[in-house]
Design goal:
Length: about 850
Amino acid sequence: MFKKLHILFLLLILTIITPAFAGIFGYKKGDDRSVWDILTREERFTNLVSQIEQNELTDYFKHTKAQTVFAPVNEAFDKEDSSVFKRKYSKEQILYHLVGVSAKSDELWDGRLLDTFAYMDKMQQRLKVSKSTTEIAVGTGSDQAQAKVIDQNIEASNGVIHAVDKVLSLPLYLDETLRMNKDSQDFYDKAKKADITNELRQAHGYTVFVTKGDIFGDELSSVEKSYLLDHPEGRKDLSRLLKHAISPDMYSSDKFAEGKSAIDTLEGSEKLEIFTKVRKILGNQFKVNDIDVEKSDILAANGVIHILERPLMPKDKGFIEPATRKTLLGMNKTQIVKLFDENGLGSYLDEDQVDKTTIIAPPNDAFEGEDEDSLTGKRLKSWLQYHIVHGRYEPSDLKDGQLLETESHDNLGQKEYQRLNVRITDNPSLGKDTILFGKSAVVGDPIPVKDNQIIYSVAQPLELPRDPLAQLPVNLDLSTFVASIYASGSDEIIRKSHGITLFAPTNNAFNRLGLLAKHLLQPESQEKLAKVATYHAGRGVYYQDAVSEGEYRIVTLSSNAEITLNKTKDGFFVRGHGAADGDDREVIGKVDKTDILTSNGVIHTIDRVQIPSSVKITNYDLLTAEGTASLLNLLQHADLKEEILKGLDPNEPYTILAPSNRAFGKINLEDLLENRDKLIKVARLHILPVSMPRLNTDEILQTNPSVNEKSPKDVPYIGVDIPTLSDGRYVVIRRGISGGYDVAVKGTLQDRANIVNIGRSSASGGVLVIDNVLLPKEEFYRHSMPWWAILLIVLGVLVGLAILAGAAYSGWRWYKSRREGNIHLGEEN
């Protein structure tokens, strides 16, 4: 009984003294004092209480049934404001320290989000807990300093107090939060360029997904980034890309349900796929479009920010619609874009361009110093169109010497398109071929735009092909043709014609004309020369690769006379008037160099001059062009019919063997002129009533042959017999073993005459200039010794040589005997 009373007495004493000691040493669980009671009684919270009372917030702290207060100590306020007159904090900032649930330290797990009593723009503000093994802090989760808990779990009847070392600042708006945090700085910078920062400030609950560092990473090329960031035209697409990473609703990590879900974006064309793994203690873990969230819940006043591990890009590769315009801007080719727009060519750069094209893009600095007038002088629109190639050409599609069809008509006429020459050279230092369009080298790799366009960057602008009369003199081997154009007054018609092909004879080609070239270049032959010059200008543009094999009759500028173009497996051939047949290479021209581009067509060089049928050339014309006045005089005295010198009938051709004046100097011309019969015989011996024999002009004139083949109908080495007007007399023309040709009267031993020049007439005949006068057989022998006289002279020479040889031998024998000491003394008696 005594023991029971003793135990009851001890329990009574403990019941009385426990509250007293609790008042001395601290508060215990179940303390009936409220949060407000504790705050007002604790000296270290006087500044907080003062701010609560100034803002008339006492009822929040007195009557909230379950609350957590993160209470800044007095020193925290002193750090914020060291002035004598303490500033008044806003109502919402003070309420930002008050949470509507009671949460002790063991309930404050890392990443927990707590709803406070603070509101900004009618949006409830939240706190984020950051917890490590050594400390607990609360704040917005941003780079701004957090408030550290320095005394935790101060329990009250209606909640719990955690003393903190810093006055909590209200969250910043989204734009400011992005700017103030290093992980989101790049997003802010790009949002500022896209002009959406004001929208972010005025948002009402946005969620922003941000990549640390460059938000585009390697997902976009440097060209795409340049377009988006460096050019005003890219702002709209930049805004769309950024808004793809923004949801118009506020999703903190604790708002996502377990598993997969999808949320809308501000851009609207694609939803973001969310996969969430709910964790009660450590906070939810989630992915966005299969990208891990590296840091979640950076709180802003009007939204929340999540930091992703890598860039969040649209799944649709065509999200930013590829276009040539955008690519050119990204390549910093702004000047050519501007010029395209100003000259009505903008459609080639936009999304609705469906034709396959290749764009050649020069750099901006290539236009420096170019004023509007100088560009206009270059036929600006046509020049710009020259940078647009029909067809999409990858580097593997290009070949050396290829001609690409451009959009430019230039001076070709509306039916023809100007061509662009391609040159490809090996460049071992780069490990790849160097590509040149015209004279402009390609810089870097081409950039494809969808499947229908590709852009090549070049070091300098393309140059339109030059005027033909400016292009021709560049090739020094065409100087005679250039001179003939100007001398004949044909320059303007060639320059002003649209869409022509010039078959330009080389200097060697003019040399092959021999006497005819001399005749055409005489002042009195200007009209003929004009016809010849314009005969080489055909209407229509015939590029070598664009012409199929076969024959083409081409109308020329020479009074619409036609010339034949023939493409075979052996090459390009041009045939005018006067060819003996289809393989007469002495007349038919072969194209040496092809596809020299001009502003109004193309130039091909040829190795033979073509003569139109309208140009009439007589033997008389040829003889007057050369130093053959003696022969002309002889023929005029011979009273031969006029057709021999001035005939034009191809059915009655005459070929004249014309000794030069020097050749006539070797004979007694006066004696010949005084003896009419002899004169007629000599004259008729030099006239061949046949067409010009098939001779190789290169052999006669010693010009460089353009081809290696020999005509199968050429005069052979054994020679051919050709009749003359002298009854029954023939001359023999043969090919020399060492080159060239010679001619002699058949059946005589007189010296052969070398053929030194040639000229063809319109009647299929012509003139062969020779270096000796040919004499009839009887005249040759009359003016020479008889055969027996020649024989006696030869025998006399031989006998004389024999005597000299015998005397020399005797002298040698005598000399040898003396040296050996053998002296003849005579016979002994």
